[in-house]
Specification:
The chain contains eight helices and seven strands; from the N terminus they run E-H-E-E-E-H-H-H-E-H-E-H-E-H-H. It is of the alpha/beta class. Helix 1 links the parallel strand 1 and strand 2.
Length: 227
């Protein structure tokens, strides 16, 4: 069984969903420390004036876990919805996804950042990208220690025989410990994604998955993992 473990992000880019697609079980690792100015509560979209951030306002501090972070009550949901409409209304497939956006931003009210992120990621993965991977929470399994030790104990307790990691984790993962534990360690490669048609130039590869969906529709998976 191949496993991936990641913190939940707000409307993440294609690489995040590529990792999910490549494993049998994906665990949200939201029991770890919240990080400010990161991907947890924001992402980028493409506009006529270049890339712009859309950010969920939160009360989060460096002393909180991600799953404890609360969203600041404000008009952010309407603002995000309006910004997406303003910049993507003319995209070829925007109207297909409009009911999804209305559900997320106009019909629901969000209190916890983790709940918002996990809902978005799972709906996009299952409904729009056809991903069959099983989802779960890291807190469903026992883990001990911190950092590298905690992650490895979590992976072992899932019964995984292979672990797929993003390249940034090379800074703290000790590969030899995985070999000793009998777990095959694999590293994600983000270098081969082809360009796709976007509304504005220059081409921007590192934007929210929404950009691909609005511009490509059901062809989106072919531009991430082919087929």
């Amino acid at each position: 069984m191949k496993l991936a473990v990641l913190q939940s992000n707000y409307l993440p880019w294609k690489g995040y969903f590529d990792i999910i697609h490549k494993v049998d079980l994906f665990l949200f690792y939201d029991e770890v420390q919240y990080t400010k100015n990161d991907w947890r509560n924001r992402n980028r979209i493409q506009t006529r004036n270049g890339m712009e951030w859309i950010t969920v306002p939160v009360h989060g501090t460096l002393y909180q876990r991600i799953d404890e972070v609360e969203i600041v009550p404000s008009r952010w949901q309407m603002q995000h919805y309006q910004k997406l409409v303003t910049n993507y209304a003319r995209a070829p497939f925007f109207n297909f996804y409009r009911p999804f956006l209305e559900d997320v931003y106009l019909k629901k009210k969000w209190q916890k950042l983790s709940d918002l992120n996990q809902y978005l990621i799972q709906r996009i993965a299952k409904e729009f990208l056809g991903i069959k991977t099983n989802f779960g929470l890291s807190t469903d399994y026992v883990s001990i220690g911190s950092g590298h030790e905690k992650l490895l104990s979590l992976i072992r307790n899932t019964g995984a025989t292979a672990y797929l990691s993003g390249p940034a984790a090379k800074n703290y993962i000790i590969a030899s410990d995985y070999t000793t534990a009998g777990i095959r360690l694999e590293w994600m490669d983000y270098s081969e994604y082809p360009q796709y048609p976007q509304q504005f130039l220059p081409y921007q590869p590192n934007v929210s998955i929404l950009d691909m969906l609005f511009n490509l529709g059901e062809k989106t998976p072919a531009y991430i993992w082919g087929g």
